[in-house]
Design goal:
The protein is α+β, with helices and mostly antiparallel strands and 376 residues long. It has three domains: 68 residues, Orthogonal Bundle (434 Repressor (Amino-terminal Domain)); 113 residues, Sandwich (Immunoglobulin-like); 128 residues, no CATH class. It is built from ten helices and 17 strands. The strands form three sheets. It has an eight-stranded antiparallel beta sheet. It has a seven-stranded antiparallel beta sheet with strand order 11-12-13-14-15-16-17. Strand 11 and strand 12 form a beta hairpin. The termini are far apart. 20% of the residues are buried.
Length: 376
Amino acid sequence: MNSDKIGLFVKCLRESQNMSQEELAGKLYIDRTVVNKIEKSKVNLTVDNLKKISEIFDVSTDEILIGEYRSNENIEVIQNVSLDLYNKNLKSQKRQKILAIMFSLIIIVFLGYFFVSTYNKVKIYTVGVKSDLINFNSGFFIQARDKVYFNVNIDYNFDTKDLEMIKLYYNIDGNDRTIIEANHFMNLEFTDFYGYQEYVDFNKLDKLVDNFYLDLIYKNGEIVKNKLDLTKDYVNNNFFLRKKEKGVIENNDDGEKKDYVNSEISYKFLRLKEKSQEKVENSSYDYPAYELIYNKINYDIFLSDEIINLFYKINGKEYILEYMNFNDGYEYFCLKDETHDIYNFVLYDNKCVNYDCDKVDDTVNLINNVLDKLLN
């Protein structure tokens, strides 16, 4: 194709019908200056303009592309132009397909790499300990692909004046690796990064979570070893986000669903607060809001805007059952004895935070029955 011939041919077609550039531009829905540039071969015809000029002047698109009317002398040239355009179109389509395939492969490789490098790589564990000497107010271990974070807050059931230090470490394949040795006893935390690995070996993280220990080292040389219990609370192994059904817990054995949150307990608790507002305001640890005998057990009941505490004794052993209900729907049970927490259970997420929550059903029934007695 010759751009100069195409431009001159368009000009000849226009002038043969005594049409100005302005008029042709109006029919093509373009600016007059564009028509001028087409005729001077400064811009190429678009496919849309090529079709419109063909219709306006009643000539074929092949004639416009070779820049002259069809004749016996140029029939072969016109055919070659058509074949050339067809071949160029095929090549263009092939290029587009190749580019689309390459782009798709790049996306697939990237997504594959992203999936492999992130799927199942974020894990959150709650940290507990079964000991008569210590318990954890809160404890968690977060494991990501390139970072770990550990934190526990420790409560002691004895006077720490005889402690020399505490030591946090892990043992893998019979080898101890110390993480922290400290003479401050309330909080332990550390952060480590892949490549730095000051505290942990990232290649052994799966083994590490089952082998954390906390030693209590006394001034007299005695060492009490405590194995930490890390319970997996979350892992990013879902392909799609799933909306959690608030307030429903599934029994792992038979699939039975139990609805605790926003249940009768929450409703009864609100009713009791309305009924006993003055008692709530005056309740303290010296003056319980209620005293109740239920199943031959004496309960001292303390109320606040968000908490019910039940103090009671069974076989001479004191227990405290704490139920919390916050305005945002967060509900929580904590059962304690004289020395440590027996369990902590978050109803909002249906999670056993620490220890053994097998008796949570008994706790739910007890709170329900006590509230019924107080409301009657």
